[in-house]
Structures are given as C-alpha cells and as structure tokens.
Amino acid sequence: MDRELVFAAMLRRLNTVSGLEEADIAALRELPIAIRHWEAGRAIVSDGERPTDSCLVIEGFCIRSKVIASGQRQILSIHIPGEIPDLQSLHLHRMDHDLISLTACTLGFISHASLRALTRAKPNLAEVLWRDTLIDAAMFREWIVNVGQRPATGRLAHIVLELRRRLEVTGRPTADNFEMPLTQEQIGEALGITPVHANRVIRQLREERIVDISRGRVTVLDEAKLGELAQFDDRYLHQNPSL
C-alpha cells in the first residue's frame, strides 16, 4: 500500500488540530508500519492485554468498548481513519478496555519502540501526540455528558454530528449523507439504552424528518432541528491549533 495513503488521513487530522512542521511530517512518514487487513467484529486489542504496538486506522471504523460482568457492553467511542485509538498504550501498559474493528479495516501497527524513539528525537511531535490524547480525553468527557444528561434522541443526534464533524477533517465527503456503520444494537450500546429503545429513537427521528439512519448510513433531513436537538458545540474536538 502506498505510504502516502497510509499516513494521509492522520497527517491531515494532526495538522488540523495541532499544526505540523515539514520536518515533523517527514519524520512521521518514516515510521515503520506493519499493514494488516482486519475483519469486522474482531478484537484488535483486548481488555487486560499488554500490547507492544499502537494501531493506526487507515481504512474502516473501530470502537472502544467495555463489557461488565453481566455481559452488557458500553461503546465508549467510535474511531475513524487517521486516528490511533490505542495511543495511550504507549504509556499505560495494560489495556483497560477493548478495541474492536466495527467494519472490515486496514490497520497499521507501529511499534512502541519506534514511537518512543520518535518522541524522544522530536519533542514537537511528542507535544502533538500528547495533545492528541488530551483531545481524546475531552471527547470522553463529552460522551459522559451525552449519555448521562441528554435525552436519548439528543444523544443520538450528538453522536451523528460529532462523527460528521470528525469525518470532515479526513477529507471524506459528508454533507447530508455519510457512513455510520452501527447496527441498532450497537447504537443502543453507544447511547446506554436497550436495542428496543434504540429502535424507537431511530424511528422517531425518521418520522419527525430530522435524520434517517439506515443500512449503516446517515441522511440529515433537517439540519437546524438536528443541531437544536443535539446541542452540539464542536469546541471539545479542538479542531484548530489555537483551541
């Protein structure tokens, strides 16, 4: 696979949120990376494991999740091309959640040894990756508020707008129709509700002509109503180096 394609989404995103110097871009492009194809629904890293690599999503979607003793699962975040969802394993050596491919994916595995060498040789890149994990934490905070305080329709509306905003940075077409490959059950797991409740929420938003979610895609029907329902403010995504 062409190395330019491997790193394109990550470089575009990091440049958007942090700003990159040409020397930093060149150093990132030189990272050794093992490219692997991953089937949908397969664990990339599991809770309790001690990974020696961090994973760059090149193509496809992944989720982070946590399963409790009863077997119920909470989806904690959705990850898209250009993101390194287990970057924290560089310093937190034992995983405390699962990272799973949501769709068939192309993944790039970068050894922790290579990442450590890079951050020690390039302090500016160390700051960029540190900022990336801080933005990740900001997103976690917003997801906690979303699940804990918004009504179910608002929760789904917020996730829809967040995902669209993040996909825009990767250069993918979004506008009023874009990919969100979650099943009804997975939507329930992301919102903290049952699949039956998730079905009602999806149907309500469709019947009210706000948004249609079907076959892994989102179609925005009423931008104003969707924004009002979500109470979406994208500041927490910090998609500007000055934020």
What is the structure about, briefly put?
It contains 8 helices and 10 strands. The chain is an alpha+beta fold and 243 residues long.
What would your notes on this structure say?
- The chain has helices at residues 3-17, 22-29, 112-121, 123-149, 152-169, 184-191, 195-207, 223-230; strands at residues 34-38, 43-45, 53-59, 62-67, 73-79, 98-101, 105-111, 177-179, 211-214, 217-220.
- It has 243 residues and is of the alpha+beta class.
- The strands form three sheets. Strands 2-6-4-5 form a four-stranded antiparallel β-sheet. Strands 1-7-3 form a three-stranded antiparallel β-sheet. A three-stranded antiparallel β-sheet has the order 8-10-9.
- A hairpin with a 5-residue loop joins strand 4 (62-67) and strand 5 (73-79).
- The longest helix has 27 residues, at 123-149.
- The mean pLDDT is 96.
Keywords:
8 helices, single chain, 243 residues, 4-stranded antiparallel sheet, 3-stranded antiparallel sheet, alpha+beta, 10 strands
